Amino acid sequence: MLASRNGSKSATPSPVAPSSRRGTASVPSQDWPNVNADDDIDRLVVMHQTRSSLSSLGLRSDSMASVYSGAGEGRYGTVAVRGQVEFGLQYNYKARALEIHIKQCKDLAPVDAKRNRSDPYVKVYLLPDKSKSGKRKTKVKKHTLNPVFDETLKFHISLNGLETRTLWLTVWHSDMFGRNDFLGEVMMTLENKVFDDPTPVWYNLQERTEPFDDMLSFKGDIIVCLKFVPPDMTVHKKGKRSRGTLHVLVKEAKSLTAVKANGTSDPFCKSYLLPDKGRSSKQKTPVAKRTVNPVWNYTFIYDDVTLQELAERCLELTVWDHDRLASNEFLGGVRFSLGTGKHYGKSVDWMDATGKELTLWKSMLERPNFWVEGCLSLRPSLDTRTS
Description:
Residues 1-35 are annotated as: Disordered. Keywords: Membrane, Repeat. One of its GO terms (cellular component) is plasma membrane. Residues 81-203, 227-351 form the C2 domain. This protein has helices spanning 18-22, 38-41, 307-310, 355-366; strands at residues 31-32, 84-92, 97-106, 120-127, 135-137, 140-141, 148-156, 166-173, 181-189, 201-204, 221-229, 244-254, 267-274, 283-284, 295-305, 314-321, 329-336, 342-343, 346-347, 372-377. It is mainly β. The two termini are 29 Å apart.
């Protein structure tokens, strides 16, 4: 595995009995070309912070955070949300993809109250990725409150990558004039989710909730492996005690911000072992050309360090877009440390690791000679320096 240096609240299933599922009547429906203002609605999506703990099972299925209705596109509150959606989740290990089987909905709210019907379709994101490429949707079923979709939506993402994602499923009425109506949502955190049973389950559709005030911008994910190699006590340099080595394998990043006119970036990853900001601490991966999903598989090596020193230091990884003619643009970063806020008793702002940054660093310190791997969301800002 060692590469060369050159190289919330969860959705709760509704208690619908199997017999009730078999008795669901579907109004005859037909596929209808999905030509609407759905792309405009993408701009309404905003990021939220997920909660890691799952709520206990019950009769309610609370959503966490949702969308704005901005600039008039996408209407909320035109109908009272009701009904249920049946879907199942399965991880395809061979294809490295999450497969979401959207089976059907029942008892949806009618947008056309006079004819008691709607034209529903289902849309899915894996938040916090709110990009157009991160959207999946079913075909529209016309003139029905009980649409049967029987479609599988696929997201190509690693199993580790799902740890930081939240499934956000929404049901919409497709309006031929472009003002789609919100019919309900289901929100489900995927952290610690076990994908061992693909059987579709019924979930209650929920009203949208008000957006959080403390939303953060999603900058993508980075997959990193860490390992501390203890000193070989049989090898001694001239008059010097043998010390250890920190190995940092930067594997890849996903869903980075596209800053080029062609909708891509030229990303590279840079590393410092703080507080050292000198040239001896600075290391870089090669530049990955024209991609927002770079694969580097590149190892940074920091020699002559001990576990005790690493407990007082911070590994800072930042991702940049390479620009030959201007300054490189910051795309996001992470900091690994014990998050104490102090360096040998002195307060510093860079010992600020939290969440997976902290737990991965701690796991590395506790398990010498073992690789530890994590998928982390890039922070939208750090105390960045020029690259």
